[in-house]
Amino acid sequence: MNPFWSMSASSTRKKPETEEKALLGELKTSPPRSAPKKQLPSVPKNVMPITKPASPALSAQSTNGTHASYGPFYLEYSLLAEYTLVVKQKLPGVYVQPSYQSALMWFGVIFIRHGLYQDGVFKFTIYIPDNYPDGDCPRLIFDLPIFHPLVDPVSGELDVKRAFPKWRRNHNHIWQILMFARRVFYKIDTISPLNPESAVLYERDIQLFKSKVLDSVKLCSSHLFDPPKIEDPHAISFSPWNPAIHNEVREKMLTQKKGDDQQCKNTQVSGLSWVKPGSIQPFSKEDKTLPT
């Protein structure tokens, strides 16, 4: 009889002393499990942490024991997964590139295609806490302060915490910050602004607000070709149109697009159909591949 079953099924019946001794002896002499206990691999020695960027944010230390031991590997995996999610989202007009020097710093640019900020090209930098995703919300700072109620007129920082007051791991993601940064230029929010002047003008003098927005867009465009503020091989930079360089790239892009469109068209035309064009009768289309 299985001793565990006896203990659960007949718990109301007191076992004789000899029976209890026999059960204890059986339990003590039972062979150990053949399957080894699952353990995390040992942490390699002399592991160098990820280089921290020159971020204006103060970093907080993680209280998670596993994160503390496997910090560099866990952080790199988390950031790689976050960037993969960004690529899959395909946010229109938003482009980002992680820094070469540090995975905790991402360079980006937003193209505004319609609305009050139309034709705006705004470069920014995202600073990620070194205890991500357990720490505070990442910060997004524009290279030049933009005239906007949610953008600090001095530092150029976007009020990201408005949408993410508390960063929740496995629920909040960096692509959501990018989507929020894009949306604020199409849907203006004036509640608790970082730039009170901008909020007041939007509410009371929309024409003056539009004028200042246009000046801000022109200012950013005039500095579009400036060298990046942070020296990094992955920093996003723009250069004036050079036919000797850009014409060839442009032709390759257009040729590839035409090829993709033609391939999609051929795929649609060559789809299997047994209905003759202009008819609604099934199996009315002749199969020319079969011998007649």
Percent range for β-strand residues: 5-15%
- CATH homolog superfamily of the domain at 70-223: Ubiquitin Conjugating Enzyme
CATH topology name of the domain at 70-223: Ubiquitin Conjugating Enzyme
Q: Give the rounded overall mean pLDDT.
A: 78
CATH class of the domain at 70-223: Alpha Beta
> Based on CA inertia axes, which overall geometry fits?
globular
Distance between the termini: 77 Å
Sheet with the most strands: spatial strand order: 1-2-3-4
- Corresponding CATH architecture of the domain at 70-223: Roll
Briefly note the structural class of the backbone: alpha+beta
User: Can you give the helix content as a percent range?
Assistant: 25-40%
Q: What is the element string, with H for helices and E for strands?
A: HHHHEEEEHHHH
Count the E strands: 4
Radius of gyration: 31 Å
User: Largest sheet at a glance?
Assistant: 4 strands, antiparallel
**Uncertain segments:** 1-15, 26-30, 43-49, 57-69
> How many helix segments?
8
Domain UBC core: 74-222
Biased composition (Polar residues): 1-11
Keywords: Apoptosis, Cell membrane, Cytoplasm, Membrane, Protein transport, Transport
InterPro entries: Ub_conjugating_enzyme, UBC, UBQ-conjugating_enzyme/RWD
